[in-house]
TrEMBL record:
Residues 36-434 form the Major facilitator superfamily (MFS) profile domain. It is found in: Cell membrane. Keywords: Cell membrane, Membrane, Transmembrane, Transmembrane helix, Transport. This is MFS transporter. Signal peptide: none annotated. It comes from Blastococcus deserti.
Length: 448
């Protein structure tokens, strides 16, 4: 074929690509089903990276590295929580500034060495370092995945979007915790359980780089048609807020945003307790690694499956009832763990704890999406997740100190009471964020 004959084909290909880029964007789950489904799969891989540790690391600390003080054992959760909390904040700000996809890909690059470090770690310090990297990776990937789903579906289906996102992640946590428990029981604590993490990192990086598309333009489309609530609650929350103003509104000033932030922190505080101390409590009662793996998987499995229901129902019934009820149910479940002494009792407690967390997790994220303006929503999600995942660090430190001083059961009782207080704060301070009625709306203007 001559050069003159090939030129039109190149031009036609470029024109087709340009036309594809210029096709009008649409908000909605059905309109963006392929990308939404892909992002669900990516977040399942993100959850799997976390799940590889849930059963194995607390036992590894005791049996291979000889750590006996609970505070020392929980240093890896403290490191993970601090790294993830700070990175959540940065991920939100960077997603607004540079786009979602670069942040997602960067998170997977950071994840690649984590399972290798866990396999080869010659001392506990290496495990802590691996968890710093894991926290950074989780902050970048999980934050961005949920932001991208919220971008795609628009305001009507936020609960459904966050429910699918969190369900995929925590079902993968559960499945991987169960699988690593059986692998550890059959082959030892290292290296076989961490081979799953190597596979997850490779798949996640490949899909995010080659198949995921940028969604920031969908947020801009929603911002162009954004309207305020009929009751005028959000009229002061206009698009042009500085990063400092977004932080203050999300953390302290805006009643719904700040209530969600404190509830998220307490939720992950008790998850840090469950992650770090429950396996040690179960082992002390004589349970084998396989049964500990079942309990470690049961809680996030119910949590993950439940979010498929609770997220969507919150689009119909509102966010606040699920958040208040979920925090109180978690408190009751933790109390049951504290009084239990057998596999059956702890299995019931794990189911209740998972159900309570499923009521809370997607609805808190959806509430942030309800209130935050699309122009700074990613930043607000990042700040909320800064507080929420800071709960891992607070939980690890608090639970470790209390367990060393008074025993594991006393630490569980204290966190149960704290969780109940958090639910009461939401009941008193938070208003319903999801506007279900079609009442009159007016376009938001700048704050006075």
């Amino acid at each position: 074929m001559s050069d003159s004959g090939s030129a039109p084909e190149v031009g036609e290909g470029a024109a087709a690509r340009t036309a594809a880029r210029e096709r009008p964007l649409h908000l909605g789950l059905r309109q963006n089903a392929a990308q939404f489904t892909l992002l669900v799969a990516v977040n399942a891989l993100v959850g799997g990276m976390l799940g590889q540790e849930r059963t194995v690391l607390p036992l590894l600390a005791e049996r291979e590295f000889g750590l006996t003080a609970y505070t020392a054992v929980l240093t890896y959760i403290l490191a993970f929580g601090l790294a993830k909390a700070v990175t959540n904040y940065l991920a939100g700000a960077w997603s607004d500034r540079y786009g979602r996809k670069p942040v997602l890909v960067a998170g997977w690059v950071v994840a690649v060495p984590v399972p290798l470090l866990l396999i080869w770690a010659p001392s506990w310090g290496w495990v802590v370092a691996a968890n710093v990297l894991l926290g950074i990776s989780q902050g970048l990937t999980w934050s961005t995945a949920v932001i991208m789903k919220i971008d795609l579906v628009g305001p009507a289906r936020r609960g459904l979007a966050t429910g699918f996102n969190e369900a995929a992640g925590y079902l993968a946590v559960a499945a991987t915790a169960l699988a690593t428990g059986y692998l550890a029981g059959a082959s030892g604590l290292r290296p076989e359980p961490f081979f799953l993490g190597i596979a997850y990192a490779a798949l996640g990086l490949g899909l995010s780089t080659l198949a995921v598309r940028e969604t920031r333009q969908h947020a801009r489309l929603e911002a162009g048609t954004h309207t305020s609530r009929a009751d005028g609650r959000h009229d002061h929350l206009h698009e042009e807020l500085s990063q400092r103003q977004v932080f203050v509104q999300t953390s302290f000033r805006e009643p719904a945003l700040s209530s969600a932030s404190q509830a998220g922190l307490v939720n992950n505080l008790n998850d840090g307790l469950a992650w770090g101390l429950f396996p040690v409590l179960y082992a002390g009662a004589g349970l084998g690694v396989g049964r500990i793996g079942v309990l470690a998987a049961l809680y996030p499995a119910v949590w993950g499956l439940g979010q498929l229901v609770t997220g969507a129902l919150s689009d119909r019934w509102g966010r606040k009832p699920f958040i208040v009820g979920g925090m109180l149910l978690q408190a009751a479940a933790l109390a049951l763990v504290a009084v239990g002494d057998a596999f059956a009792v702890w299995a019931v407690a794990a189911v209740l704890l998972g159900a309570g967390t499923a009521m809370v997790y997607p609805t808190l994220l959806a509430a942030i999406g309800d209130v935050a303006h699309p122009g700074w929503r990613a930043s607000s999600v990042g700040i909320y997740r800064l507080w929420r995942d800071g709960g891992f660090a607070v939980g690890a430190l608090l639970a470790g100190v209390l367990a060393d001083l008074y025993g594991i059961r006393a630490a569980v009782w204290f966190v149960a009471a704290l969780t109940a207080v958090s639910g009461a704060v939401v009941a008193i301070r938070m208003y319903e964020t999801h506007q279900r009625g079609p009442g009159p709306r007016r376009r938001a203007g700048p704050a006075g």
